Amino acid sequence: MSNIETLIEGLGDLGIELSVKQKEHFIKYKDLLKEWNEKINITAITDDIEIDIKHFLDSLTPIITKLFEGKKKIIDIGTGGGFPGLPLKIFNNELQVTLLDSLNKRIIFLNEVIKALELKNIDAIHGRAEEFGRTPKYREQYDICISRAVASLDTLSEYSLPFVKVGGYFISMKGSEVDEELKEAEKGIKLLGGKILKKEIVRIPNSDIIHSLIIIHKIQETPTKYPRGGGKPKKNPL
Ligand SMILES: C[S@@+](CC[C@H](N)C(=O)[O-])C[C@H]1O[C@@H](n2cnc3c(N)ncnc32)[C@H](O)[C@@H]1O
């Protein structure tokens, strides 16, 4: 059975105590992550302490924004092994979560975790963000779109902002050096109906790792021509 002492300690530093059930969920999730990672490539991080810091605690840093309280509807773009969407769901079971990734084997893994943890109001779906963002079922349906380690902010904004309702937020989890990327994405974010609210600097508890959360407010509908197809958001960012 996996150890989650570093996670428990790190959250303790923030004054947060996990329930028995939440602890069981994180342990089971970590067990499955390590087991599946031997068969398919999900993550390069496999050590108990590193998983706690670089996956679980890092995924939970957005809770400092207070935006993840209550029954929010959120989508995690390019979720990979479920980060940050799945730890956020374990933390606040009221969240209604969509996990999206273009690699089906990772979605199969996530569905196994969802089943093993008996989580409700969470879906793992296979596909590309720039395609789902054009369909009525997903477009402008979410209070929050969040993403970590998927693309540069200009490209990622075109993938992400179409999912967000007017009045909602797009949160991009980035490293500490993000100013250049922010500057390059500014014009596109405006075209997509967003407004950069702030850059929140966060230290991952129980570590010296500094990251930033870019918080973008959706103030207008995204024009229907976005997201563009044919790989344009990546090849030719706005
Ligand atoms: C480096 S991994 C990051 C995974 C996870 N967010 C994390 O931080 O551990 C990037 C993930 O984004 C997915 N991805 C890349 N482009 C995508 C797109 N256009 N739509 C959906 N998923 C995408 C990849 O399949 C991969 O699983």
TrEMBL record:
Compartment(s): Cytoplasm
S-adenosyl-L-methionine listed as a keyword: yes
Residues bound to S-adenosyl-L-methionine: 78, 83, 129-130, 148
GO biological process: methylation
Top-level taxon of the source organism: Bacteria
Protein EC: 2.1.1.-
InterPro entries: rRNA_ssu_MeTfrase_G (IPR003682)
Swiss-Prot/TrEMBL keywords: Cytoplasm, Methyltransferase, rRNA processing, S-adenosyl-L-methionine, Transferase
GO molecular function: methyltransferase activity
The UniProt record lists the keyword Cytoplasm: yes
Main location: cytoplasm
NCBIfam families: rsmG_gidB (TIGR00138)
Protein purpose: Specifically methylates the N7 position of a guanine in 16S rRNA.
Protein family membership: Belongs to the methyltransferase superfamily. RNA methyltransferase RsmG family.
Protein name from the UniProt record: Ribosomal RNA small subunit methyltransferase G
Organism this protein belongs to: Tissierella carlieri
